[in-house]
Amino acid sequence: MPTPSQPPQPPQPSQTGLRDATRRSALKAGMGFALGAGLLGAAPGAAAADSRSARTGPGRPTARLLQTGTPLCEQPGDSASAQGLGSGDLAIPYYREHDNTWGYVFGDAFGGIAQADPYLGSPVILNQANFDASGRTPISFSWAMPTGGAADQCFDYAHRADNGHGFEITRIPNDCIEFGGRTYIQYTSVALWENIPAGYDGSLMSGVAYSDDYGVTWQDYPYHWAGDTQGTNQSMYGMWSFAGIDPDGWLYIFSKRWNGTHSNTADGGAIQLFRIRPDEFRAANFGAQENWAFLDGRWQWTRAVGPSVMLSGNRIGEFSVKRIGNTYCMSYFDVDDYAICTRTAPRPDAVWTAPKPQIVGDGLPPHHWGKPQLPFLYGGYIHPGSASATSLTLIASQWQSINQGKTPYRVLQYDGIRP
């Protein structure tokens, strides 16, 4: 019998946090100010309505109380440390549809907030019983995976070792989705973090792991997409984002080259789109995917050729695409512009809006003026439970703590983001 996916009495949630170490030493975010090119395609759609301000009395609107950089880990006594996680990055949010709760997938994580604290591994999952989409209360973690114990690495593999595929340093999650009673994490196995030759991405491979007990135990699908050190440099299947299952019944997936190090000089901001039926995905029949491609002078869905590049321009690190209401929303870390940007479209295969900087680094070109600043930022994952397509919750990461002696990773919550 599968282990229950929730503990009988989850610990009481608390608040706040920051982040961890050994992942971002190669980060040298560029300060170029050019924006990436637009997306191609066509399809109709509509945006969801924005949420409204709270009122204290008739005709007396008050400002919404939103989280604008609330740390979710790395502070003593917070809800993450109560679950055994002191610091970590990414915190990719996903909906646990089987019990109407929320999961957050961290990358490399530590058991404490000091540099000497134990390394937990990657990925690590914390869960939340209830998410407040209004932004009035910050995300607070209710229990950790594996259920009933302290936070620990979900996948069974060794770091800085050969686990049967070649040498790998770590496995970094790129996105997570649950449907049909199974949870999926797409990840990249990283072979090089530093000293990556120009024009190479440093990946070993990418893969999909799944769990039939909602995150307690995990297995890997046998098929992997070869990476740089397996002979396929710049694979467009390095990093995925699950946009979700559309009302048309297809699971839409965006993917790009691996650039979690932010030092891939050949990244070029290229993103592609494919779709697959959920039952085919569950069966690992990845050959059943349809590709959004420019063929015979027009964009179309086809199996005759691979996906075409939809977006190109600046180098892109972590990215996220989610269907919020009736709108598809995209966020990504623009390495060259040193900003987390957003775009929207009525359909995955439609024309996307121009990039809009939302959270920016500490260098301020004119188009960054008035934006929230977060030095050493990256990530920028869209919460699938966001209030609306015009009021997103983003989870941003920061790789270097200001306080000496602390691990350099943390995640922060931003609400009310209007893409």
From TrEMBL:
One Pfam family matching this protein: DUF4185
InterPro entries given in the database record: DUF4185, TAT_signal
Domain DUF4185: 76-414
Pro residues bias (residue ranges): 1-13
Sequence segments annotated as region (Disordered): 1-22
Domain of life: Bacteria
PROSITE patterns: TAT
Protein name: DUF4185 domain-containing protein
Source organism (scientific name): Streptomyces gelaticus
